[in-house]
Amino acid sequence: SRQIDLTHILLPQVIFLKYEHNIDLKSVGFNHNDVVAMLISKDLNSVCDLGGKMVGCPTWWAPHTGIFQDVIREAGLIPVVGKTKDQLAPNEVGFIVVPPPDMVEGLKSGKIAGCTVSGPFGAAAQVLAGAKLVKMSGDVWDHHPCCQSVMMSDFIEEDRERAQKITNAIYKAT
Questions:
Q1: Is residue 123 within 8 Å of 83, Cβ to Cβ?
Q2: For residue 91, which phi and psi values (nearest 5 degrees)?
Q3: How distant, in Å, are the alpha carbons of 34, 63, 66, 160 from that of 57?
Q4: In the structure, what pLDDT confidence band is assigned to residue 49 with cuts at 50, 70 and 90?
Q5: Could you give the CA distance from residue 43 to residue 126 in angstroms, rounded to a whole number?
Q6: Are 98 and 3 in contact, with CB atoms under 8 Å apart?
Q7: What confidence category does residue 33 fall into, taking pLDDT thresholds of 50, 70 and 90?
């Protein structure tokens, strides 16, 4: 819809937009990696305690959703989608999409017993909901790709100097 010229999004979404929707965009920088928290509720002691419970992820496309599933598998549990809490076996962990700003309340209310989320949302979950940090995504996959900045190609073509200044600022900030 051409409402934006620059955005910060997950790497899989870049691929989806470019190749599934034929949106002409360019990656101008990886913004961060290794900064996603995997958390459990204050009432749990380890990932092993997630059996029969629901956890939140920001989107199915997030690399950290897959990384959290690997951590759950390593604990001897089975990550699943499409089941309610009542349908879960004791060795299954149900994944549901929860917007990052809603994860704190989800943990506090018991809707979710854990989550994977980046940036300030993980810190907020620890401070406001008493969530316990299990691992950071970089502990599992060092320097994994996460988010990047992308620009619309025609924005770059229209004003290369401005696009380069923006790219330089992103590089300097990261």
A1: no
A2: -100, 10
A3: 16, 10, 10, 37
A4: very high
A5: 12
A6: no
A7: low
Residue 173: strand, helix, or coil: helix
Nearest to 163 by CA among 174, 149, 173: 149
Residue located via tokens 């073509």: 157
How many helices (H) and strands (E) the chain has is answered by: 7, 9
Torsion (CA) 108, 104, 71, 15 in degrees, nearest 10: 150
The answer to whether the CB of 61 falls within 8 A of the CB of 13 is yes
Instruction: Assess whether pLDDT exceeds 80 at residue 61.
Output: no
CA atoms lying within 13 Å on the CB side of residue 28:
25
- In the numeric block, the tokens 């920001």 are attached to 58
Q: Name the β-bridge partners of 37.
A: 117, 136
Residues contacting residue 156 through CB under 8 Å, at least 6 positions apart: 26, 163
CB 44 within 8 A of CB 140: no
Task: Compute the mean pLDDT over every residue in the chain, rounded to the nearest whole number.
Answer: 89
Question: Does 30 score more than 80 pLDDT?
Answer: no
pLDDT(120) > 80? yes
Cα–Cα dist 74/91, whole Å: 12
CB–CB of 134/39 below 8 Å? yes
Q: How far apart are alpha carbons 156 and 31 in whole angstroms? A: 19
